Amino acid sequence: MSARGGSALGGKKVIYLIVFLVIAHVVGMEGPYYNTWYYDDFLHFMGGLTLAVAAFEFFPKIKLKTGLVNILIFIIIIAILWELHEYIWDRVLVADYGFPVMQLGITDTISDFLFALLGGSVYFFIFSGKTKRYKLQSGAKNKGFTMVEILVVVAILGIIISMVGVNLFGARTGARDTKRISDLNQIGRFLSFGCPMPSSGAGEYDLNVLLQEYRTNYPQYANNIPASISDPKTGTSVLSNYKYIVDSNDDCVLYANLENGEAKVDLPAISDPTPGGGRGVLESAAAGVNGSYKYYQISN
Q: Are residues 228 and 101 in the same domain?
């Protein structure tokens, strides 16, 4: 079925929703995307709903029907463009400048699409219901929802429920590991200027100890150093559980224990975090604070 006319929310409300999504996205990059498992799904749901609102508002103006299939195709097109934006972000800004990672794997990408489609479907049925009641009261013919529209929404809901049930734990673990890697990439940029040597000399330190000393010794860079950075599962504001090792040869390494025991090993030549050992995932003989034998390290 299709509905004619502009959206009940109107063009201004589309702008309000977009502003909300932009602000929520910026806030999410500061932590909620990685610390709160449902935050990303909620924003993609709201993104799909916003696109459906925009479709009801603008489709009639360009002579397009506001049917469910048209709206879902519109959402898929925008979702593809968004995923391409995340891909470019991760390949350029994360690799070169240490920005937070945006793509968390194929499961996350599929989940993004499904929750966006669900948001669009929910708004379609709510708005179409209002349209049908108006037509019924005015004596207009009411055909109701088509079987295809109902089946599409039921299929989306079924897939989402299955994915949530199967992947909830894995998604949380993957998101926390992604944050660990993103945190170390962010701090690791400073290693390109050399290895800071704490006043106590060579050795192993918690990262927060190093950052506090670095802020004290180099106040001109204080604004570029996070006030607090820590492991999303086991870290605290005092003890980050991110480690820093520096040796007498001016080699150093930052490392964190991952949760995913199946993480692909990039550094098979080393079995412990090693200054000068490169960047990537290694497997150790000893489990870390997060229970796995896999570690991610960044070295000069």
A: no
Regarding pTM above 0.70, the answer is: no
C-beta neighbour count of 84 within 10 angstroms: 10
Q: Which residues contact 20 (CB under 8 A, 6 or more apart)?
A: 46
Q: In angstroms, what CA-CA distances link 96 with 91, 100, 192, 196, 264? A: 8, 11, 12, 21, 22
Nearest to 246 by CA among 193, 194, 185: 194
User: pLDDT by residue (tens digit) across 191-236?
Assistant: 777 888 888 899 999 998 888 887 787 777 777 777 668 898 888 8
Decide which of 153, 183, 213 is a domain's last residue.
183
Q: Which of 151, 183, 215 is the last residue of a domain?
A: 183
